[in-house]
Amino acid sequence: MTHTTVPAYAAPSAKAPLERITIQRREPGEHDVLIEIKYAGICHSDIHTVRGEWGDDGHFPLAPGHEIAGVVTATGSGVTRYQVGDRVGVGCFVDSCRECDNCKAGLQQYCTGELGNVGTYGATGRDGEITQGGYSTHVVVDENYVLRIPDSIPLDRAAPLLCAGITLYSPLAHWQAGPGKKVAIVGLGGLGHMGVKIAHAMGAEVTVLSQSLRKQADGLRLGADHFYATSDPATFAELAGGFDLIVNTVSADVDINAYLGLLKSGGTLVQVGAPENPQQVASFALITRRLSLAGSMIGGIPETQEMLDFCGEHGIGADIELIRAEQINEAYERVLASDVRYRFVIDAATI
C-alpha cells in the first residue's frame, strides 16, 4: 500500500505535549475519499486519550481529533456518494465490521463484529494500521463513513457536531424529546450547549442544571427556558418529579440518585458523560416510580447524517473559539479548567 506524508499535531508519547510532526495517509482506494481538513474540534476524549487516562497504553505518536470538517479533493474509482468539492465531515469512527446486526441496522457505533467500531484515531483499521485523527491537513476515509455537511452550516461551527452534536442528538431523538416534553440538560459545556440547542429546536421545554448560575445568560441565549444551580439544595426540592428526560453530560462524579429524584414516574436519565469512578444507584429510586437509567454513545452513520440535516434546517452550529494549531496545548489546559465557550476548533490551515 502506498502512502502520502502530511503534517499533523500529535502527542509523541502519553502525557507529552502535542507537537508538529508528519504522519502517513494511505492513497485513496476504490471506495475512499481524500478530504482536505479545514477544521477540527477539540473533544475532551482527545485529552483523555493522549494522556493515557482511559487505562490504555495507546499508540504513539498519536494525532487525535474526531470532529472533522473539510472538503473532498479526490475520490477512488468506485466512489458514488461524493465528488470533488463536496463539504463533508468525519466523526468518531471510520469503519466497522459492516456485518453484525447493529451495523446492518445503521448502528455502527455499537458494532459487535470482530473488527469492531474503528475509532478515527488510535484504533487498528482493517488494513492493520493505526488510525490517525483530524489534527492534520488531510484524511482518507471510506465513503460509507463520511457525512455530508449542509451548506447552511459554516464548516468551523459544523466540526463539533460530528461528536458533541450527535452525542446529544441521539438520546434526545431516541427518547423523543419534543413538544410537551420537559427535558433537563446537566452541564453547560461542549456537550451540554449542543443539547440545549437541539432540544429547543425539537420543541421541548428545556432546563439547564449547572453547578452555578455563572452561565445562566448563555443558557437562556442558547434556547433554555429555565436555568438552575445544582449547588443549591433547593433546586432538587423545587424540581422534584418534574422531568420526562434528563441527559447528564458531566464526566465528574455526581449524585445520580439526586437526579433520579427529578424525574417524573416513567422518566429516563441518560448518561452521556463518562465519570472515572463507578456510580452508586439506589434500586428503590428506580423501582418505586418505574424510572430508567440509560446510556448513549454518539450515533450511527444514518443518524449522524440525520442530525446534520436537522442542524442545517434549524441553523444550528456549535459555539466555538477558533484557534491556531500552536495553541492546542494551551487549549487543552483551558478545557480542563472549563474555560471555553463552548468548543475549541483548530484552523487546519495553521498545521
UniProtKB/TrEMBL annotation:
Gene3D superfamilies: Medium-chain alcohol dehydrogenases, catalytic domain, NAD(P)-binding Rossmann-like Domain. One of its GO terms (molecular function) is alcohol dehydrogenase (NADP+) activity. It catalyses: a primary alcohol + NADP(+) = an aldehyde + NADPH + H(+). It is an enzyme of class 1 (oxidoreductase). Its EC number is 1.1.1.2. The keyword Zinc applies. PROSITE patterns: ADH_ZINC (PS00059). Pfam families: ADH_N (PF08240), ADH_zinc_N (PF00107). Residues 16-346 form the Enoyl reductase (ER) domain. It comes from the Bacteria. Keywords: Metal-binding, Oxidoreductase, Zinc. Its cofactor is Zn(2+). Belongs to the zinc-containing alcohol dehydrogenase family. This is alcohol dehydrogenase (NADP(+)). The lineage of its organism: Bacteria, Bacillati, Actinomycetota, Actinomycetes, Kitasatosporales.
